[in-house]
Specification:
The chain is of the alpha/beta class. The chain has three domains: 167 residues, no CATH class; 64 residues; 186 residues, Rossmann fold (3-Layer(aba) Sandwich). The protein contains 19 helices and 15 strands. The strands form four sheets. Strands 1-5-2-3-4-6 form a six-stranded antiparallel β-sheet. Helix 6 packs across helix 7 and helix 14 runs antiparallel to helix 19. The longest helix has 24 residues. It is globular and about 70 Å long.
Length: 449
């Protein structure tokens, strides 16, 4: 093993080019003064993997954008454990679950993030005494031949181009690993249009980095971040540290030998779930954000609840009808249909008359609450999502929901019946399959009428 100190990007570039010319096979480990360790893996001068500051968050982001099918059929724990993820992806290519091109872009995107972070930190002189680089050689015959290799010099040149664009935009001190939060709500509201203000409030949920938001909104990272910079400079919006995601969800109880064992469900709706017990309450979350999904999944499964996520808004009602959750969390800001529209659809189904529907949003104004109430929402959960808020909602609404269902003759607080709802009223007497078919017809009719 050889060790050296990297004090600027020129020295890092020289090391990368040397690796390419020497066809280096092995591992690089970077160690900074802040204990933020990174690594890169090489195979004959090609970069075939690595690990960044927040590896789980980054892998989840790349797979959600480039290999969404893996998020449906495979549990996150089996995919997002570094460094075996590369071997698993290679096996998925061999099994024809994903294409070679998909794996290539996942690895390339992840490596670019690692190199970008290293460049930014060196340019900010964050390590005055140098960034320690340790190089360890690995025999070529033990490297997985199926791994994707990215030319190190090409990866470096592409990352440098993006870093230069980032600098030109005035973002040299803004890390894409940071999140945003509103510091001065009233001043921001006065200086922006209603639409811009609503968008900024939705972005500043405290749970997602700029990179996460770019994936969620399917936007270019630079084009997403640059317009927010003026508000940061004015002190209206602040930057906040956001740590890595944790996929380890320990069971809250240890089952006795005669108790029912934990069930593992490989696919329900749009994402895999871990069900704590068949007798625990089932909570659904309709949300298109991979990060919010993961946070909600972790909170609920650790608390012993069963969890189902629905990312496809078009199939939300069908999945709800087939799974019949005890409580529904519903994100307000989604691309195809917003939370108000979906909540109204849910309340038109008699089965969900007393099911709590909680709107999840970064907006918490009087108008928003009034509109949510009009479409039958039971309550609000304000972002950022955290354990205390979620548990408070569950304790409040699940107990009241059970009480409501046990009483006869209770009146629903959903909005007055509208024209066309009579068909759905007749669904009470249908079995599950007929119920789903008729709701589909009604949904399609409403969409295209």
């Amino acid at each position: 093993m050889t060790t050296c100190l990297i004090v600027n990007t020129d020295e890092l570039a020289k090391q990368i080019l040397a690796c390419t010319s020497e066809k280096f096979t092995g591992r690089w480990d970077f160690e900074g003064s802040e204990n933020q360790n990174r690594s890169l893996y090489f195979s004959e001068g090609l970069i075939c993997g690595g690990s960044g500051i927040y590896p789980i968050r980054s892998w989840y982001r790349q797979l959600s954008r480039h290999c969404p099918q893996l998020m449906v059929n495979t549990t996150p724990d089996s995919l997002l454990t570094d460094p075996w993820t590369y071997d698993i992806l290679a096996q998925k290519v061999k099994d024809r679950k994903i294409s070679h091109e998909q794996m290539t872009i996942v690895v390339e995107s992840y490596i670019t993030e690692i190199l970008f972070d290293l460049i930014q930190e060196l340019e900010q002189h964050r390590y005055p005494s140098g960034l320690r680089l340790s190089q360890s050689r690995i025999p070529q015959d033990i490297m997985n031949s199926a791994l994707v290799g990215i030319p190190a010099d090409l990866a470096w040149s592409e990352t440098i181009k993006f870093w230069q664009a980032w600098q030109e935009a005035g973002l040299i001190d803004v890390s894409p690993n940071l999140g945003v939060r509103i510091l001065k709500v009233e001043e921001l509201k006065q200086q922006t249009s209603a639409l811009v203000y609503e968008n900024l409030i939705a972005l500043a949920d405290g749970n997602q980095t700029f990179r996460d938001l770019a994936v969620k909104l399917n936007r270019n990272l630079l084009l997403l971040t640059k317009p927010i910079l003026p508000y940061i400079r004015q002190g209206l919006i602040g930057l906040t540290e956001i740590g890595d995601l944790s996929l380890t969800c320990p069971s809250p109880v240890t089952p006795k030998p005669n108790e029912e064992k934990t069930q593992e469900v490989t696919e329900i709706g749009n994402t895999p779930l871990s069900l704590s017990s068949s007798s625990s309450a089932l909570v659904a979350c309709i949300d298109d954000s991979p990060v919010d999904i993961l946070i909600m999944n972790q909170i609920l499964t650790q608390a012993g609840y069963r969890f189902i996520n629905i990312q496809n808004q078009e199939n939300a009602l069908l999945t709800l009808l087939s799974q019949k959750p005890d409580l529904i969390f519903l994100d307000l800001m989604m691309p195809i249909a917003n939370g108000y529209e979906i909540c109204a659809q849910i309340r038109r189904v008699p089965f969900f008359k007393n099911t709590p529907v909680i709107i999840v949003t970064g907006k918490d104004g009087v108008v928003d609450r009034a509109r949510a109430k009009m479409v039958g929402s039971s309550g609000f959960l304000t972002k950022p999502i955290d354990r205390e808020k979620v548990m408070k909602v569950l304790q409040m609404y699940l107990s009241s929901s059970k009480s409501s269902q046990s009483e006869e003759g209770i009146k629903s607080d959903r909005p007055p019946q509208k024209k066309g709802d009579s068909l759905l009223q007749n669904l009470k007497n249908l079995d599950s399959s007929e119920l789903i078919q008729d709701v589909l017809k009604s949904s399609i009719k409403q969409k295209y009428s």
